[in-house]
Design a protein that fits this description.
The structure holds 2 protein chains of 2 kinds. By secondary structure, chain A is mainly beta. Chain A is built from no helices and 11 strands. In chain B, the strands form 2 sheets. In chain B, strands 2, 4, 5, 6, 9, 10 and 11 form a 7-stranded mixed β-sheet that branches. In chain B, strands 1-3-8-7 form a 4-stranded antiparallel β-sheet, with no helix packed on it. The chains are: A mainly beta, B mainly beta.
Chain lengths: 109, 115
């Protein structure tokens, strides 16, 4: 079966760095997405990786290793507004998005 | 300018009723989706439409029926509502149905509560 694993919840301190991991087992691979979802709101796109390596976008970076079925989202200089759920999703060989359950990130002052 | 809009935002109804949720996108995208997000926060794909053709249909009950009058609209009709249908339903759209970069844009969600 297809599976996306991420930690359920993480806690970090304002101004610090946090890494959210995602491992996947899917039928084929056509890219990995990270989305941010604030409570009561819709998911919004953060990043897309299809080749191995690190993609940097401001305070957020996303890394992919296809051979290991592994990705992480790195958030730097954490702000209170970064408190949200972070969803990992993989596009399989049928171009369907398979979603993880999300990681709830709690930022403390 | 709203990219993907849904109505209503909140829907409270009794078991056994029939209800519809509307979705519209003004992005000119070819594909639209319906997702269900339950209390455990799993996003589950229900349907997608590409140019008015159903291309994904997960094993959802046939009480759920998507209706697409045109490329910009994908409505969700639910018959004989059950308690387990309570969830947040998200509409989304994307430019291409397959291949390469395929960012999906989500609507604000419809919180359905069945009493």
């Amino acid at each position: 079966g297809q599976n996306i694993d991420q930690p359920t919840e993480m806690t970090a301190t304002e101004g610090a760095i946090v890494q959210i991991n995602c491992t996947y087992q899917t039928s084929g691979f056509n890219g990995l997405f990270w989305y941010q979802q604030h409570a009561g709101e819709a998911p919004t796109f953060l990043s897309y990786n299809v080749l191995d390596g690190l993609e940097e976008k401001g305070r957020f970076s996303s890394f992919l290793s296809r051979s290991k079925g592994y990705s992480y989202l790195l958030l730097k200089e954490l702000q209170m507004k970064d408190s949200a759920s972070y969803l990992c999703a993989v596009m399989d060989s049928n171009y369907q998005l398979i979603w993880g359950a999300g990681t709830k990130l709690i930022i403390k002052p | 300018d709203t990219a993907v809009s849904q109505t209503p935002k909140y829907l409270v109804t009794q078991m056994g009723n029939d209800k519809s949720i509307k979705c519209e996108q003004n992005l000119g995208h070819d594909t639209m989706y319906w997702y269900k997000q339950d209390s455990k926060k799993f996003l589950k794909i229900m349907f997608s439409y590409n140019n008015k053709e159903l291309i994904i249909n997960e094993t959802v009950p046939n009480r759920f029926s998507p209706k697409s009058p045109d490329k910009a609209h994908l409505n969700l009709h639910i018959n004989s509502l059950e308690l387990g249908d309570s969830a947040v339903y998200f509409c989304a759209s994307s430019q291409v149905p397959s291949g390469g970069y395929n960012e999906q844009f989500f609507g604000p969600g419809t919180r359905l509560t069945v009493l």
